[in-house]
Design goal:
Number of domains: 1
Pfam families: PTS_EIIA_1 (PF00358)
CATH class: Mainly Beta
Keywords: Kinase, Phosphotransferase system, Sugar transport, Transferase, Transport
CATH architecture: Distorted Sandwich
Distance between the termini: 7 Å
Order of helices and strands: EEHEEEEEEEEHEEEE
Protein name: PTS glucose transporter subunit IIA
Largest sheet: 8 strands, antiparallel
CATH topology: Glucose Permease (Domain IIA)
Main location: cytoplasm
Organism: Cellulomonas edaphi
Radius of gyration: 14 Å
């Protein structure tokens, strides 16, 4: 299987996935990855981390089906499902083919924080074998949407 490079889906500061205040992400139950603490902007655009097909799609989260039967999950904030889509705008539909860097969702980290929710965003290689995903950016380093983030071997 070829190495798959995943790009950062949003701008912010890289954090270990263990910093996410949700055990499913923090303990890597659904797969390894990193988290991004987003820039506190009123509107932030979230882009596709790789070429793929939109699988599961919610205002606050999406999964992309990638090459070699791999999938990546991007979750915007924690417990943001409780917002019922408020403050999130989808730019794609489930089943749509997308290219790396294409805008998929716009959201407001400011509004999510104002609602008392964590804004940290897990980026997870779903069901990836242990040791197969390597972070390209160290904890505490800022990234822009589209910057290289993870290599999946």
């Amino acid at each position: 299987m070829a190495t798959l490079r995943l790009l950062s889906p949003l701008s912010g500061v890289v954090r270990p996935v263990s910093a996410v205040p949700d055990v499913v992400f923090a303990e890597q139950i659904i797969g390894p990855g990193v988290a991004i603490e987003p820039e506190r902007s009123q509107t932030q655009h979230v882009v596709a981390p790789a070429d793929g097909v939109v699988g599961a799609l919610h205002p606050h989260a999406f999964a992309l089906e990638l090459a070699d039967e791999r999938s990546v999950l991007v979750h915007l904030g924690i417990d943001t499902v409780t917002l019922a889509g408020l403050g999130f705008t989808l730019h794609v539909r489930a089943g749509e083919a997308v290219t790396a860097g294409q805008r998929l969702v716009s959201w407001s980290p400011v509004d999510v924080a104002a609602a008392g929710l964590a804004t940290i965003c897990p980026v997870v290689a779903l069901q990836a074998p242990e040791g197969s995903v390597v972070a390209l950016v160290a904890d505490g380093v800022a990234v822009a949407a589209g910057d290289p983030l993870l290599d999946w071997y």
